[in-house]
Amino acid sequence: MPMRFDHADHVHTVAAHSSAAASSPVAASWRRCLTLHGLSPEEARAPWRLSEAEFRQARYRSSALIEEACGEIDRLFATVGRAGCCLLLTDENGIALERRGAAGDDRDFRGVGLWSGTVWSEASVGTNGIGTALADERAMLILRDQHFLSCNTGLSCTTAPIRDHTGRVAAAIDISTCRNDANEMTMSILSQAVRDAAARIEAGLFRRAFSAARILLVPVDSKAAPALLAIDRDDLVLGATRAARQALGLDDRRIATGVAASDLLREDRADEGRELDDAERAALRRVLTRAGGNVSQAADLLRISRATLYRKMKKLSVN
Question: What is the pLDDT of residues 278-310, one digit of tens each?
Fold first, then answer.
């Protein structure tokens, strides 16, 4: 009990100073919990729990996310599950939609509320990996006494947000443990695994949203988040992940207005007047390839005469 009061006093002291909140994401979260959410670190509170009907509705809203993420969650759990870890997939509100945990650890995790249908937002349980990652929109590692509530100081958790095809935070994936021997180095390794899993789920959601488009990988500096563009048959951008938007200066308005991928990527266009010829040449080569080099068959596919096709091939230097 004295330890809980010591932690609560520490939270109150740190959160009272705006300078500490400005320099530390944990202190900033503590301050939000006190001033915005009206929580107290000494109170023993469990996370909010949805009714069965509310939980079913939450899963229905996130059905595409769940379908895309389940395989990745299973693979990640196969790696860390035996180490006393619990995995949660949440929506953008911190609602635990999917959970993975070893049966032998279920009692501990259920006791602290790491269970499907619970809400791990900051408003629900104060500073925690899921809620703070969603609030700050970045990967977060929260070790034991960095939690806001004294009753959660036995937990260590690492979380990464997942963005949808528009670049907005839509979910989070989390690894939590109640083990006393979980140190910062171990959790840092798990943190990288969580970020990698989030990046793969994010890429899968993007490809799902633009299943009929070509997906282009944007060459950017090494980052965990995928930098992807979805482009149509005319080279116009249909969508972009958050990393691609940041790298190329894209937003919803610019995408809706229309922008060519080649312009964004600054592809060399020494002679802009030849773009139509280049496009026609590419089209002819594709059709000839499909026809196995048979000019007569290619002409039929293009619905032009063989003589016309020969003239175009000569003009455009297509062999």
Answer: 778 878 888 888 888 898 988 888 888 888 888
Has residue 181 got a pLDDT over 70?
Answer: yes
Our separate counts of H helices and E strands in the chain read: 15, 10
Res. 151: pLDDT tops 70: yes
How many other C-beta atoms can be found within 10 angstroms of the C-beta atom of residue 253? 7
Residue 171: name the closest of 93, 76, 77, 245 by CA: 93
Pairing of strands 228-231, 214-217: antiparallel
Say how many Å lie between the first and final Cα of the chain, rounded: 84
Using CA atoms, how far residue 282 sits from 111, 272, 285, in Å, is: 63, 16, 5
**Rg (the chain; Cα; Å):** 26
pLDDT exceeds 70 at position 222: no
Environment class of 194 (CB within 10 Å of its CB; exposed 0-12, middle 13-18, buried 19+): buried
Domains of the chain: 44-207 (3.30.450.40), 210-264 (no CATH), 275-315 (1.10.10)
Q: What is the pLDDT of residue 133?
A: 98
Task: Determine how many CB atoms are found less than 10 A away from the CB of residue 293.
Answer: 10
Residue 249's contacts (CB-CB under 8 Å, 6 or more residues apart) are: none
Q: What integer pLDDT is reported at residue 156 of this predicted model?
A: 96
Within its chain, how far is the Cα of 79 from the centroid? Answer: 20
* Tokens 């349980």 -> residue: 125
Higher pLDDT residue, 276 or 261?
261
Give residue 233's identity as a one-letter amino acid code: R
Residue 240, helix vs strand vs coil:
strand
Helices (H), 24-121: 25-35, 52-61, 63-80, 106-112
